[in-house]
Amino acid sequence: MKISVYHAPEEFPTAGTFDCAIAIDVLRATTTMCCALEAGADSVQAFSDLDELMTTSEEWAADKRVRIGERGGKMMPGCDLGNSPLEVTRDAVAGRRLFMSTTNGTRALNKIKPVTMVLTAALTNRQAVVDFLKDEQPGAIAMVSSGWEGSYSLEDTVCAGAVIDGLMPVLPKDWMGNDEAVAAHALFVQWRDSLDVLLQQASHGQRLLGLGNTADLEFCAKLDIVNTIPIQREPGILIAHARG
Ligand code: 3SL
Asked: What is the mean pLDDT of each run of 10 residues along the chain (244 residues)?
């Protein structure tokens, strides 16, 4: 395995050849996705564009869909839920498709969707992702942070580092695909015991705290509490892969 980390979707090289690409948006899209699929959602369909989300989801019966729309941390009009992992309960999502558009997370997914193997990671499902990669042994892996509107985010980078740390015992000596991957691992090693504090200090953490999302932040900082990995079944549509 050779691992590269990209700090924003815009940095993902279109010409690169990867066997596996992983979208990361700890605050909060990829945390919400793994929680929703673990709670029994049928699938997640990701959209960059909200109008497209509305049009496509119209084709589904109202009791078979959940519309999740977020911009700037706030729920968008016409949607059923914002982007909180605490709201995707069994009652709210079981058996339904989530139609989801968020500021950065769904953009990252859109960017990597041509890759053969696409999954999403968060701190909450980190160990499940590590176990999956150990089983599948993809050669070249790209971890793509969602960042914030094209720029770096601490929480996504520390999550990439957490996945690398879990894989470390099985990685070859030349596992580092770029310098960002080495830096992501160092960030996780430094903060592994205080991920909640790191998320509170991160700029998007501050933004969410300002909007009153303290409980979401606490939840998103928890390591290895979700066993489900969202995995792409067809471009833009993710289903659950449960850890065996
Ligand atoms: O940027 C995103 O995709 C969102 O996850 C942002 S928020 O946490 O819902 O504000």
From this structure: 97 89 97 98 95 96 96 92 96 98 92 96 98 97 95 97 98 97 98 98 96 97 98 96 74
Q: Read off the amino acid at residue 236.
A: G
CA distances to 6, 27, 106, 170 from 73, rounded to whole Å, are 23, 9, 14, 38
CB 105 within 8 A of CB 29: yes
pTM, entire model: 0.96
**pLDDT for the residue numbered 139:** 96
User: How much is the pLDDT for 182?
Assistant: 98
Expressed in angstroms and rounded, the spacing between residue 47 Cα and the centre of ligand 1 is 13
Cα(98) to ligand 1 centroid in Å equals 15
> In a mutational test of the pocket of ligand 1, which residue from 10, 53, 79, 103 has the highest number of ligand atoms less than 8 Å from its CB?
103
Alpha-helical (H) ranges within 87-151 are 90-93, 105-112, 126-136
Residue closest to 192 by CA, chosen among 164, 171, 216: 164
For strand 20-24 and strand 140-145, is the pairing parallel, antiparallel, or unpaired?
Answer: parallel
Ligand 1 pocket residue status of 83, Cβ below 6 Å = yes
Which of 33, 47, 50, 70 best tests ligand 1's pocket when mutated (most atoms within 8 Å of CB)?
70
**Residue located nearest, by CA, to atom 7 of ligand 1:** 73
The pLDDT value recorded for residue 12 is: 96
Q: Which of 112, 82, 87, 88 is nearest to 21 (CA)?
A: 112
pLDDT at residue number 14: 79
**What single-letter DSSP state applies at residue 171?**
-
Rounded distance from Cα 25 to ligand 1 centre (Å): 7
